[in-house]
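job 3f2a | input accepted
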Amino acid sequence: MTETDTIKQYYEYDVAGCATDKAPVLVHIAMLSCPNGETIVLPERLPFKGEWGENETVSLMDNPRHLLPTGLHIIYLSLIERKFYIINDELPKEEIEKQWNRSIPSSGESLFEKIIVGMSPYGGVGVWLSGSEKEVLIYWSHGSEISIGMEQFLPQNPSATLKGICDFYVTSNTAVKENLRKNGLPSRDLFDNYMKQFTYRYVVLFGFWDEVWRKYDEEEKKKGVAEFEFIEEALFDGTYDKLHDGELMNYHQAGKPKKLAVKWHIKKSEYTAYFWFEDEEIRAVFDRFYGAHPETKTDFMIRIDSEKKKFELALYRYGLNKPQVISESAYQLIVFKNKFEYIRSENYNQPPGAWIW
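job 3f2a | predicted structure (357 res):
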């Protein structure tokens, strides 16, 4: 360690890679670079696949303490396209430092413990800072297509062909094979849409449903008023927030919701509602509402009448006569009261235990 290094701050973290189940990738080179010249290699997986933004591999390093990375260097093969992509870029140093120096309010421990790199079709590469309670997106960009010979990519198997390698991994994965057969390659803007950021806050409103929403009157309040506890989210951009620190109730930049959990109580009765959003439908809802202005401050309203078992989601911005209700077909819902199932939507088809996340 040099004298200059001693005045720099070192952090303990792992690095990991990911892709999606429907668009697996193989890596040729994948590393992060640090200001002191150190490079941290992403651990291999054959192939990378899984949930977007989730930790699919874990680095095993003798010394887990490093400077925070400032560079990204990757060459990977998008198996469904049969194409290689390369990206060499700088990471947002100040934003990484700002985020990494945050701590969990309840314990004071570091909020993040991993840096995850995601690779997608058409050269899209994302980088997240990840911890048990929160994950944030700090980088999204596109690499360039590049030609790589098989003697470079697989020197131990020079007779291999690009088609043969890609076909092997695609045909050995039923989900990938069937998705390609039915839908073909994803649209070029699919992952850009996943990563697009919008300005909104959650507004949880408890009221009385009688064909229209109204506030509780005094007599109804005597029976017990619902008291909000917390909201948790997981988004299509790969991020999540389970901190319960109130930030989600303030305007912030975020992707489109993938899963939500809302908890409240009425006197001694505890309720938790879980929402799962349909990919294409919630994308269409956000695109129609925001149009060309994703920066528009918007209220994501969650209306609840516990007694009548009525739930409604809507988007609202200043100037609208009334909120724009999100169709119930855009999401699935299950609600628990005192840990027992209370309500489920007609379209609910999540596997047992899906609400544990």
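job 3f2a | The longest strand covers residues 257-266.
job 3f2a | closed
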